[in-house]
């Protein structure tokens, strides 16, 4: 029950989820991989890694599945060589039979980080297709949709990114999925800033996303949100606001 409540509150809550006893993170827990995903969504990368180490001695399938979000955490930290080594060391039969779309997700993000942007986009779209086949709408319409939109922003395909992220934001908002709505708002704001014609809306989106992420202690995209807020403040001629947002981005990066 604790694991289910934790996951739900990370995805949809307005406040931080109930804390785990520190010693629990050194053993295999119910819904172990899903729980890792919730820690990952919060930007709690050290806890993701502890749960991976806890699973390491519990058989090859459990150990391999627990690598999914450890690899994702390594990509966030830009430890790309270690992430690639870890991915290639995983058992192919497990990757091909369990949590397939999430293996596709982490490899897509790794490829993109390695500057294979086309490969990353193809694979995150494949992950969305796999999720649709499995009937897992949360992954297709929220988690992976934001990742695809983020990739589109970063390669400069801005109109495509705006359309996708607007749709994703609305889908998440209608379902009360605050975590993924905040992600969509963050990268939608980035796209609007790159378009250069709606800085006011971009600032409003970022203010809402940052307030929600800060209140609920969801930090995975908080650094990016503060960076984009700094840009929005600078364009508005607010030098003090720019400096405060840049300082906040640095603090969050160090913390995570």
**Mean pLDDT, all residues:** 95
Work out the number of β strands. Answer: 0
Shape: globular
Quaternary organization = single chain
Structural class: mainly alpha
Estimate percent helicity.
over 70%
Folded structure, characterized:
By secondary structure, the chain is mainly alpha-helical. The protein is 77% helix and 0% strand. 46% of the residues are buried. The mean pLDDT is 95.
What labels describe this entry?
256 residues; 15 helices
Sum this structure up briefly.
The chain has 256 residues and is mainly α.
Write the layout of secondary structure elements.
Elements (H helix, E strand, L loop, with lengths): L1 H11 L19 H10 L3 H11 L4 H6 L1 H10 L3 H10 L2 H4 L4 H14 L3 H18 L2 H18 L3 H17 L3 H18 L3 H18 L5 H14 L3 H17 L1
Helix pairs in contact: 1-2, 2-3, 2-5, 3-5, 5-6, 5-8, 8-9, 8-10, 9-10, 10-11, 10-12, 11-12, 12-13, 12-14, 13-14, 14-15
């Amino acid at each position: 029950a604790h694991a289910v409540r934790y996951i739900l509150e990370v995805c949809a809550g307005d406040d931080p989820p109930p804390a785990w006893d520190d010693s629990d993170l050194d053993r295999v827990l119910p819904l172990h991989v899903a729980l890792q995903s919730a820690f990952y969504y919060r930007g709690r990368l050290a806890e993701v890694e502890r749960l991976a180490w806890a699973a390491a001695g519990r058989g090859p399938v459990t150990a391999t599945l627990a690598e999914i979000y450890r690899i994702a955490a390594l990509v966030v930290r830009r430890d790309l060589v270690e992430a690639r080594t870890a991915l290639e060391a995983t058992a192919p039969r497990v990757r091909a039979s369990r949590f397939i779309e999430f293996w596709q997700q982490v490899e897509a993000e790794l490829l993109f980080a390695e500057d294979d942007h086309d490969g990353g986009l193809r694979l995150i779209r494949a992950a969305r297709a796999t999720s649709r086949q499995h009937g897992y709408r949360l992954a297709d319409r929220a988690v992976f949709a934001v990742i695809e939109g983020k990739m589109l922003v970063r390669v400069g395909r801005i109109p495509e990114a705006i359309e996708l992220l607007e749709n994703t934001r609305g889908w998440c908002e209608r379902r009360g999925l605050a975590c993924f709505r905040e992600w969509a708002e963050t990268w939608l704001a980035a796209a609007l800033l790159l378009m250069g014609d709606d800085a006011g809306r971009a600032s409003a989106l970022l203010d809402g996303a940052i307030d929600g992420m800060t209140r609920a202690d969801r930090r995975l995209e908080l650094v990016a949100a503060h960076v984009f807020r700094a840009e929005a403040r600078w364009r508005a001629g607010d030098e003090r606001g720019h400096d405060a947002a840049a300082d906040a981005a640095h603090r969050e990066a160090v913390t995570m």
